[in-house]
Amino acid sequence: MTTVFDPIDLAGTQLANRIAMAPMTRSRAGEGGTATDLVTEYYTQRASAGLIITEGIQPSPVGQGYPSTPGLHSAEQIASWRKVTDSVHAAGGRIFAQLMHAGRIGHPVLLPDGLVPVGPSPVAAPGQVYTHVGPKDFVEPHELTDAEVRSTIADFATAARNAVEAGFDGVELHGANGYLIHQFLAPNTNLREDAWGGSDEARTRFAVEVVKAVVAEIGPERTALRISPSNPYNGIEEPAPDAVYTALVREIEPLGLAYLHVLEGVEIRELTLALRKQFTGTFVLNVLTEGPTGPEDHTVIDDGIADIVSYGALFLANPDLPARLKAGGPFNTPDATTFFGGDAKGYTDYAPLDA
Questions:
Q1: Distance of alpha carbon 270 from its chain centroid, rounded?
Q2: Do 246 and 223 touch, CB atoms closer than 8 A?
Q3: Among the four 125, 165, 229, 318, which has the fewest Cβ within 10 Å?
Q4: For residue 201, how many other CB atoms are within 10 A of its CB?
Q5: By the 8 A CB rule, do 184 and 120 touch?
Q6: What confidence tens digit (pLDDT) does each residue in 145-161 have?
Q7: Angle between helices 242-252 and 269-278 (to 10 degrees)
Q8: Beta partners for 346?
């Protein structure tokens, strides 16, 4: 029987185990959206994961949604990430860059040169975003024109090429959690009636075209997609997600992607199983749990529901998580108050297993 501790071939990239570190926003980038020495230390400590998936990295300046998040659209950013990937590889790890365009999530004060958040339709997100000058209400985004949609797709492809230049093993496209790709998929944020919206199939087009552009740039074996059907985060409403997501997976299935990463939502295990059956490549699952994904949740590997299971919060306080899972614990308890911000040391200060 296959277990979470067995190795796996990820489209030619050999992983030591089937434990992935899920992408988690940390807001600790340096000047110019660069990766810092703390970022290098943080990811290197977690190199025993079969696969590390980074925090969301914006593919363009307008893609930034939060303060102090990193990018992959400048030479300085590429060089800074090279230090991270070299260190992770030296420690025996594998690392994918998550490319995340925030879309309508953000605020003009976070963006340079008078830019404003963009989206498929001029529908503001509910709530506020934290900025360096305090909380700000989300604004109505600029509706992308057809030409701007195509330019945004090109930005993803360029950022993917930059990721490979920076030494990443591949990229995960963030199509989840209410960010730009998800905004095109959801009926309450995509009100378009052109080729990019108006039907379930049309709302998948942006996601499919981004995936295809990245595949053309760096190859399918280095390209992955993350989705979160019915996830209400950031004001998304998907009351009937099945048709959109089965249509999406039907389009990307023939491309031979490295993996599909599903962030499971409330009452969608049936859809998870349907997507698992539909997608014949490596299936990564972030299991729906009441608290942090724990040792009891890697049974989805034993049961054949997933090929890899991704862990989020538990990886923050337990950089050596694979060893702790194998030993059955003990587990340090995540404390979110110590894990955010450029000078927060909660990323690196922890009690190792053998302490």
A1: 23
A2: no
A3: 165
A4: 14
A5: yes
A6: 999 999 999 999 999 99
A7: 20
A8: none
Between CA 203 and CA 211 the distance in angstroms is 14
Q: Six-digit token pair at 227?
A: 């989705």
| Residues designated as active site | 179
Question: 296 Cβ partners below 8 Å, 6+ apart?
Answer: none
- Residue 229 near residue 241 (C-beta atoms within 8 A): yes
SS (H, E, C) the chain: CCCCCCCEEECCEEECCCEEECCCCCCCCCHHHCCCHHHHHHHHHCCCCCEEEEEEEECCHHHCCCCCCCECCCHHHHHHHHHHHHHHHHCCCCEEEEECCCCCCCCHHHCCCCCCCEECCCCCCCCEEEECCEEEECCCCEECCHHHHHHHHHHHHHHHHHHHHCCCCEEEEEECCCCHHHHHHCCCCCCCCCCCCCCHHHHCHHHHHHHHHHHHHHCHHHEEEEECCCCCHHHCCCCCCHHHHHHHHHHHHHHCCCEEEEECCCCCHHHHHHHHHHCCCEEEEECCCCCCCCHHHHHHHHCCCCCEEEECHHHHHCCCHHHHHHHCCCCCCCCHHHCCCCCCHHHCCCCCCCC
Structure confidence at residue 311 (pLDDT): 93
Q: How far is CA 121 from CA 152, 249, 289, in A?
A: 15, 24, 32
Burial class (CB in 10 A: 0-12, 13-18, 19+), 30: middle
Structure confidence at residue 29 as a pLDDT band (50, 70, 90) = very high
Cα-based torsion angle of the residue sequence 221, 225, 226, 228 in order, rounded to the nearest 10 degrees: -140
Beta-carbon neighbour count of residue 165 at 10 Å? 15
pLDDT single digits (tens) 208-225: 999 999 999 999 999 999
List C-alpha distances in Å: 21 to 57, 114, 203, 310.
15, 35, 29, 6
Whether 39 shows a pLDDT value over 80: the answer reads yes
Q: Give the tokens for residue 289.
A: 């749990």
Query: Taking CA 189 as the corner, what is the angle to CA 183 and CA 194, rounded to the nearest 5 degrees?
Result: 90
- Residues contacting 167, CB < 8 A, separation 6+: 81, 82, 84, 85, 86, 89
Tokens of 241: 């997600």
